[in-house]
Amino acid sequence: MGTALTYTHLQSLEVRNPFDNQVLKTLPVDGHDDVLKALGILSSYDYRLSGWQRYTILSRLCVLLERYRPELRRTISLESGKTLSDAEAEIHRACQAILLSAEEAKRINGELVPLDTVAGMDTDTAMVYREPIGIVAAITPFNFPLNLVAHKVGPALAANNPVILKPSEATPLTAIRLVELLYEAGLPEEMLQIVVGSPEILVDVMCKDDRVRKISFTGSVAVGKSICHKAGMKEICMELGGNDPMVVLADADLDAALPIAIDGAFGNNGERCTSVKRFVIEDSIADEFIDRFVTATRALKVGNQLEPGIDVGPLINTRAATDIKGRINCAVANGARLRCGGKRVGALLWPTVLDYVRNDNPIVAEETFGPVAPFIRVADFDSAIEMVNDSSFGLQSGVFTNDLGKAKAAVA
Fold this sequence. Notes:
Elements: E1 12-16, E2 23-28, H1 32-43, H2 51-67, H3 69-80, H4 84-104, E3 111-114, E4 125-128, E5 135-139, H5 147-158, E6 163-166, H6 172-184, E7 192-194, H7 199-208, E8 212-218, H8 221-231, E9 235-239, E10 245-248, H9 254-266, E11 278-282, H10 283-298, H11 318-333, E12 337-340, E13 344-345, E14 348-349, E15 352-355, H12 362-365, E16 372-378, H13 381-389, E17 398-400, H14 404-411
Parallel strand pairs: 5-6, 5-8, 6-7, 8-9, 10-11, 10-17, 11-16, 15-16
Antiparallel strand pairs: 1-2, 3-4, 12-15, 13-14
Helix pairs in contact: 2-4, 2-6, 3-4, 3-6, 4-5, 7-8, 9-10
């Protein structure tokens, strides 16, 4: 496609509000030829933006993000299902990412390297220049439709790299708006193109086209492996999910741990790779902490993400909520105790607390992307570490303890 808003095909994509499944907008769908056209535009552009120009454009974008904050907050919330407060937090993070990118655009320097460590080159010096790598393919997920786009596009543009952006087909409206604002900030369209549609088609073309020099992808392990298999000699940067544990030891300050645990499990509707996916807790304090956790969970308000005061909105679609509901049922069938939640209406899934969960159950053995808090009881610190490490994931972990020795041992 020629620009962010010009489409030339027949198929369409309906972007829906997860809460009521109402169509927000219908977009044309890009295909194989549109990706090739976008790459042709990006690869034919031979004008280099100076560091000052890149800094200025990205700085202007920060101003525009602030100017259109209410509009962006509503768009993010509408298409992703996250609450208005979570959408507001996402905009803040995105602004920070763009601001940092703007500053770094002025600091991409070379260096002088003395060569006097090589015989016969006593007076020689090498000059090192940092050059753009080339076209970057930025492939982003649904759960942070602004922030994760900003985290990929901002640094790439700061380093003077053209970008082809493929946002999630579930949440493309925020990404399209960001591209519009970058154009408004002065970025040439030849530096940034966006394609919307089926990842099976669009990502496949990006992976196989030699004009793409780097791929930045956030998403599932399965898709990440597929991209690596197809990408060949391209540079690849990936973040492929997590199964993040939070350990609560017997000597922990439970008052401090509780609010962090609640936000960790249910913030952003539980749809983030760094959400707490499993709680590993010493048995001696488990009853007290889980009781308090259940009380706090029951106080959370569930509903229309656009209403003030809502803590947990709908998941990205009914299919996702149905899948997690199935995992909850499976856990209960295998001995877990449902303490609260478990209710599903459409894409809404009430925050769920499960006790006595086995570590081999799919709800904790795999990445569960939703508002579920499974508790695994252990006898002691050593058992907790063993349980945490019994996973194929390793993105993020946390431990609550007042014993500095145990804290250091946990990260060793």
